[in-house]
């Protein structure tokens, strides 16, 4: 197999959570560009992402689901099986953020963030991996971590805890699932121009300080994740287990 062929995903089915916009939409489109059919999962309107994939000649289905609902993993896998066949790739991208000073941070905000950003990734990955094992089939799980998987951040206690936990979960899952033919890895986006960073980009001082630390000299764009997600989902990454690929413009190097 040539290097270019090893990056193709023809005949594969991917599930991407949080796929209505931003990073999730870009990664879903990238997987389709590489040849995969895609089950799009989000609470919001998925029609634009779905149309973009279908224009490529790939199949796409929209699954409206709230990952805070603990019945969501079963519903997502059943809908994917019914609409596209069994999935080979899972991208755990969905996430929320609640900002506030640590001393005033509420239990409700903590629980909401942990539920969506960490617990749902665990339960959906577990259900997905069980389905792969039942079919004696390998697959890929790609978790979307964060710079705050490595750092503490400010006013984002729950988000930092969840993303740090997701990094550890990636390692733990890789240790157990690699012998079963399931590759588990993560992508850690840097400071991206998305809804989650709007408050930071709107603050002139914080935005200036952040940009000053990024060697690339700019905020990241959703398309910057396309190559990373295709690589980790593809045969080219067959011997990559438990890795976290930082796509951060060099933030962690400075």
What does this structure look like?
By secondary structure, this protein is an alpha/beta fold. It has a single domain (5-246), classed as NAD(P)-binding Rossmann-like Domain (Rossmann fold), CATH 3.40.50.720. It is built from eight helices and seven strands, in the order E-H-E-H-E-H-E-H-E-H-E-H-H-H-E. It has a seven-stranded parallel β-sheet with strand order 3-2-1-4-5-6-7, sandwiched between helices. The model has no long low-confidence stretch (mean pLDDT 97).
User: What's the CATH class, please?
Assistant: Alpha Beta
Order of helices and strands: EHEHEHEHEHEHHHE
Round the mean pLDDT to the nearest integer and report it: 97
Query: How much β-strand is present in the residues?
Result: 5-15%
Named CATH topology = Rossmann fold
Tell me the CATH superfamily: NAD(P)-binding Rossmann-like Domain
State the shape. globular
Q: DSSP helix count?
A: 8
Structure at a glance:
The protein has about 250 residues and is of the alpha/beta class.
Question: How is the topology of this model organized?
Answer:
Layout: E1 13-17, H1 22-33, E2 37-42, H2 47-54, E3 60-64, H3 72-84, E4 89-92, H4 107-134, E5 139-144, H5 157-177, E6 182-189, H6 198-202, H7 204-213, H8 226-233, E7 244-247
Parallel strand pairs: 1-2, 1-4, 2-3, 4-5, 5-6, 6-7
Summarize this structure as a short list of keywords or feature phrases.
8 helices, 254 residues, 7 strands, alpha/beta
């Amino acid at each position: 197999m040539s290097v270019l062929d090893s990056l193709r995903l023809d005949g594969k089915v991917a599930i991407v959570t949080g796929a209505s916009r931003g990073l999730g939409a870009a990664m879903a489109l990238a997987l389709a560009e590489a040849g995969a059919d895609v089950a799009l999962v989000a609470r919001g309107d998925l029609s634009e992402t779905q149309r973009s994939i279908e224009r490529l000649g790939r199949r796409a289905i929209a699954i409206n689901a709230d990952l805070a609902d603990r019945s969501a993993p079963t519903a997502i896998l059943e809908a994917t099986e019914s609409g596209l066949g069994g999935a080979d790739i899972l991208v755990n991208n969905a996430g929320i953020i609640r900002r506030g000073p640590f001393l005033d941070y509420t239990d409700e905000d903590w629980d909401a963030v942990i539920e969506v950003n960490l617990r749902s990734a665990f339960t959906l990955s577990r259900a997905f991996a069980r389905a792969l094992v039942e079919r004696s089939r390998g697959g890929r799980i790609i978790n979307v971590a964060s710079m705050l998987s490595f750092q503490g951040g400010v006013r984002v206690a729950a988000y930092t805890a969840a993303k740090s936990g997701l990094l550890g979960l990636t390692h733990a899952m890789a240790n157990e699932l690699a012998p079963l033919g399931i590759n588990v890895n993560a992508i850690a986006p840097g400071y991206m121009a998305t809804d989650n960073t709007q408050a930071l980009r709107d603050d002139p001082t914080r935005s200036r300080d952040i940009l000053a630390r990024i060697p690339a000299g700019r905020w990241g764009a959703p398309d910057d994740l396309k190559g990373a997600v295709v690589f980790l989902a593809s045969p080219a990454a067959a011997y990559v287990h438990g890795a976290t690929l930082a796509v951060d413009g060099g933030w962690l190097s400075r």
